Amino acid sequence: MSEAQMKVSDEIAISIENMNKWYGTFHVLRDINLDVQRGERIVICGPSGSGKSTLIRCINALEEHQKGSITVDGTLLSSDVKNIDKVRSEVGMCFQHFNLFPHLTILENCTLAPIWVRKTPKKEAEETAMHFLEKVKIPEQADKYPGQLSGGQQQRVAIARSLCMKPRIMLFDEPTSALDPEMIKEVLDTMIELAEDGMTMLCVTHEMGFARQVANRVIFMDAGQIVEQNEPEEFFNNPQSDRTKLFLSQILGH
Amino acid sequence: MSDTPNLGFVRHEPIPPSPPPVQQAGAVKWVRENLFSNWINSILTILSIYFVAKIILASTPWMWNGVWTTSSLRECREVLQGTSGACWSVLTERWNQMLFGFQYPVEAYWRPTLAFVLLLVCIAPVLFQKLPRKMLIFSAIYPFLAFWLIWGGTLLTPVIVGLSLIAGYMAFVKTERLIGFATGLLSGVVAVALVLYLGSFVTAALSGFIALEPVASRDMGGFMLNLILGTVCVSLSIPLGIVLALGRQSNMPIIKGICVVFIEFIRGVPLITLLFVANVVLSYFFPPGTNLDLILRVIIMITLFSAAYIAEVIRGGLAALPRGQYEAADSLGLDYPQAMRLIILPQALKISIPGIVNVAVGLFKDTTLVSVISMFDLVGMIRGPISSSTAWTGIYWELYLFAILLFFVVCYGISQYSQWLERQLRTDHH
Amino acid sequence: MSSTTHTEASKFSLSMLINDTRYRSTTFQVIALIGLIFAMGYLVSNLLSNLADAGLNISWRFFGETAGYDINQMPIEYNNQMSHGRASMVGAVNTLIVAFLACVSATVLGVIAGVLRLSNNWVVSKLMAIYVEAFRNVPVLIWILIIFLVMSNVLPQPREFRGDAAASAMWFDMIAFTNRGVYVPRMIMGDLSWLVVATFVLSIAGVFAFRRYARNLLFNTGRLIPTLLPSIGIFIIPTVLVYFILGSPIGLESPELKGFNFKGGLHLRLSLIALWFALAIYTGAFIAENVRAGIQAISHGQTEAAAALGMRPGRIMSLIILPQALRVIVPPLISQYLNITKNSSLAIAVGYMDITGTLGGITLNQTGRAIECILVLMLFYLVISLSISAIMNVYNNAMKLKER
C-alpha cells in the first residue's frame, strides 16, 4: 500500500443507504449501500451501462434518486434546494468531456463559481485560482481560452476549477476516457497528487494502474449493483465473483 | 542465408519543396472542361448565354438612353421622341420622397440621415468582435440619440429614459448580490418607474431644452420608415424572444404551454392579419380613451411577430449547446438565473446570431406589407402618391428598379455578413 | 457506521414552496397562471368597455347576411345575393388554388435551380446563383407588383387577336395570353369520361408497379431491364387508347373572341397568374438554397465510399445521396409551403379575391365586424399551418435515422 493509501480517517464523508434509482421503468441503480470515509480513495469500475456514472452523479444531485438516502458531509440530500446547494458547494466534480466554459478565459472559468456562489471578492478568488492553477502546473495558461489548450491541459483546468470551491470531496467521471493516450499521464499525476494531499475521492475510471497505486478500495459494478469491492491488490489478484473475473479478463487481457 | 534485399533505409537530407509542372493549356482548356464537357452542358451553356445576352441587349440601351431632367412622364416621352429610354427624372425629382416619405419636413432630412450613419457605427462593435469593446458604450447610447434625432422634442426625454434604465440596472445589481434574483428584478422595475415618473415632470416643464423640431410619427414614410420599423422591431423582439425560448424549453408544463401556444399561433398566421389587428382591432384592447399612433401599434404587432420567430432560432441555439455545460454550471452550484446569464445564454446567443440575422432580413422585407394598410413606406409611396400624381402616372419600371436596388443592397449586405459570421463561428470551435 | 438522524417527513412550511424542488415548479407555474389570467382579464375588460362605448357587440350573424358584392375569380358557384359566409368560402378556395399551384411550380423550379447550382458548368451555376440572390433579397410584395404590372403592360389586349392580320395569335388556337389574364380551354366531361380518368390514375399506379417488378427482377435474377421508355409508355398509351375507343368523351371548350372579349373556356385572371408566378419564382429561390444545402450536407465520405465500391455518379446520386439529402431537404421544404400559403394573403395587393380579400377585405369593411372577421381569418390560416406542421412531424418521425 502506498503512502497515499494510508491517510484515512474514521469520519464518514458519504453515506448511501438502500439507494435505488429508476429511469422510467428501467431500474438503473439497485440497492446501493456505500459508506465513504474521509480521506478514502475509491475507484469504481465496470462495463458500460452498469450505472457507475449515474451513481456518482447522484451524490451531487445531478441525478435524483427515488428510494433510499444519501447523506453527504452530514447533509441529507432531500428535495430541499438549500440542502442541494450546500452539498454542491462541498463536492467538486470532473467530467469526461471537461465541460469548461468556452467563452471565458481559464482564469474566469476558475473564479466564476467562487465569485457568484460563495460571494468571494474578485481579487481573492483570482489568487485562489492562480494557486490551484499552479498546483495543476499550468499557471501560464490563465489568460487563454479553453479552445486553445490541449485535452490534457483542459482536464487539469477542470480539476483546478473544482478545487477553487475548496470542496471536501471530489468526484471524477471517467476523467481520462476522452484524452489522447499521451495526455493521460499528466491528468493521472494530478489526481495522484490530490490523493496524496488527503482528498476524499470517488473515481469512475478504467485506469487500473491508477487504482493499484492510489485507491483504498476498488468497487466493481454491473447491472446497477455493487457486485464486489475490495482492496486493490486483493481485487485484482483474487477476484471472487464470476462477473468480476470476466470483466477483468477483458480489460487486463491486452 | 538467401539474397534478401536490404530493407533498411534512412534519409539523411530532407527534400526541399519544388514548383509544380507548368499547365499545358490555360483558358481554352478550362472552358472546354467546365462549359462544354458533355452535350447537356453545352446546350445549357448556349441557352444561358443566349438568355443573358437577350436581357442585357434589351435593357442596357433603355437604361443608357434615359432622361434625367424632365419634370413629368409626358415631357420624357417628348424628349425621347419614340425611342425607348428610361425616364430617370422621376427619381431625380422624387428620390427624397421615396426615401423619407412625402410629409417629412425637408429641412430636417439631415436628422434621419445622421441617425442612419450613426446606426452603422453603433452596430459595428456588436457584429464584429475584433473592434474595441469601448465602442459598445456608444452602442448603448445610440437608441436614445436616434430617437431624439428622428422624432425631435427635447433632449431631456431620452436622457431621462436612459437615466431610468441605468438606475434600474444599478438597483438590480445591488439587490441581487445581497438578496436574490427575484427581489433584484423587482427593485430594478421599481427604480425605473420612479425615475420615469419624476422625470416626466421635468420634461413637461423644460420642453424646449435642447429641442429639435418634433416630427409626428404619421409624417414618416419612405425607405426610412422601413428601416425604422426593421431596426426597432428586431431590437425589441430579441429580449422577448429569449424569454419565450427559455419558457418553451422549460420543464414546467404551464409556462411551456403558454409559450408554445403563443409561438405557434404567431407563426401560423400571415403578418398581414396581424397588421389588420394593429390597424382596426388593437386599440380596442387598450384602456378607453388612449389613442396610440398607428406606427406604435404596428411596431407592437411586428415585434410580437418577430419575437416568435427569434424564439425558435434561440431554441435551436439552446439545443445545440452540449448538455455538459448545464451540468458543469449545476455542479459548481450556480442557480438557474446565474447559470443562464453567465454560461448558457452567452453561448446560445452566439450560436444563434446567423439565424437571428436571417429573421431580421426576412422581417425587414416584410415591413413593406405596411403599404397594404395605407402606410406610406417605400412601396406605399410608389403605389400611392407617386403613381397617382398627374405628372407620373403609368411609370413603374424606374421606380421599382430603384426600390429593388435599395432593398437588394441592404438585404444582400446583411446576408453576406451572416455568411461571413457563420464561417467565423465554424473555425472558432476547434 | 453512524447514520445521521434525518426526519423524512418534516413539517410543511411556507418557504418550502420556493425551496423544495417538489413544490417549486408548481409555485412558479401558479404565479405565471395567475399573472396570465389577470393580464387577459384586463385586456378583455378594456375590449368590452370600448365596444360598449362604440355601440358594437360581438355577433356572428353577419355570416348569413347577403354579401352584395361580386367576386371576379369564382371557382365555385357564387353570385352577389349569396351570403358573406359563401363569399368567404369562395375566397378560401381561391387561396387554396393559388397556394397549390405555387407550391408545385416552386418545388419544380427550386429543385432544378438547386441542382443546377451545384453543376460544374460555371455559366449555369453562376446564373442560378444570381437568380437565387436576386429574388431572395427583395421583398415578395415588390415582385408581385412588378410581375403584375409587366404582364398588364406587355401582354396584348384581347382585341389584338382579332382578324386575319392579327397582332397576336393564340397558342395552338386554344390558349390566349392577354393583359386580362390567360384563357385556356375548359374540359367538358361527357359520358364515360370517368373511365378515361380512372385509366389515367391506374396507369400511374402501373408505372410504380412496373418499376418494382424491374427491381425485383434485378435482385432475383441479376437481369437489368430498361425502365425509362416502358414507364413513359405505360403512362401514356392506355389513357390515349381508352380515350379514342370511347369516342373522345372529354371535350374541350376553347375560348373564342366575341366582341371585345373572349368567351367560353376557363378564364384565369391576371391577378391569379401574377400572384402564382411571383410566389413560385420567389419561393423557388429559397427552395433552391434548401436543396443545395441538403445535397452539400451529405458528407463527402459517402460519395467516396460509394465510388470506391465502383458505383457511377448517376447511381451514387439516386441511391446514396438523394435519399439522405431528402431527409435534410423535406422539413425546410414544407416550411416553404407554409410560407407560400401565408404569402398568398398578399393577393389583396393585386386584387385577387382570396380569403384575405373577401373575408378580411370587403366583408370586413361592409359589415364593420372587424374582430370577428379577423379572428376567423386567422383561424383559417392557423388550421392550414398546423395541419402542414403535423404532416411534417409525421414525416420526420418516419424518416428518423434509427440510433441506439
Describe the fold and architecture.
The complex is a heterotrimer of chains A (254), B (430) and C (404). Chain A is built from nine helices and ten strands. With 254 residues, chain A is α/β, with parallel strands linked by helices. In chain A, the strands form two sheets. A six-stranded mixed sheet of chain A has the order 6-7-8-3-9-10, with helices on both faces. Chain B has helices spanning 27-35, 39-64, 73-80, 89-100, 110-127, 135-151, 156-178, 181-205, 222-248, 253-268, 271-281, 294-320, 323-331, 336-366, 378-388, 397-428, and strands at 153-154, 211-212. In chain B, strands 1-2 form a two-stranded antiparallel ribbon. Chain C has 404 residues and is mainly alpha-helical. Helices cover 64% and strands 6% of the residues of chain C. Chain C has twelve helices and seven strands. Chain C has helices at 16-19, 21-54, 84-117, 122-136, 140-154, 193-221, 228-245, 270-297, 300-308, 313-343, 355-367, 370-399; strands at residues 176-178, 181-184, 186-189, 250-253, 256-258, 261-263, 266-269. In chain C, the strands form three sheets. Chain C has a three-stranded antiparallel sheet with strand order 1-2-7. The model of chain C is unreliable at 1-9 (pLDDT under 50). Classes of the chains: A alpha/beta (254), B mainly alpha (430), C mainly alpha (404). Chains in contact: A-B, A-C, B-C. At the B-C interface, helix 1, helix 2, helix 10, helix 11 and helix 14 of B face helix 2, helix 4, helix 5, helix 11 and helix 12 of C. Chain B: Belongs to the binding-protein-dependent transport system permease family. HisMQ subfamily. Chain B: Residues 1-21 are annotated as: Disordered. Chain B: InterPro entries: AA_ABC_transptr_permease_3TM (IPR010065), ArtM/GltK/GlnP/TcyL/YhdX-like (IPR043429), MetI-like (IPR000515), MetI-like_sf (IPR035906). Chain B: Its main location: membrane.
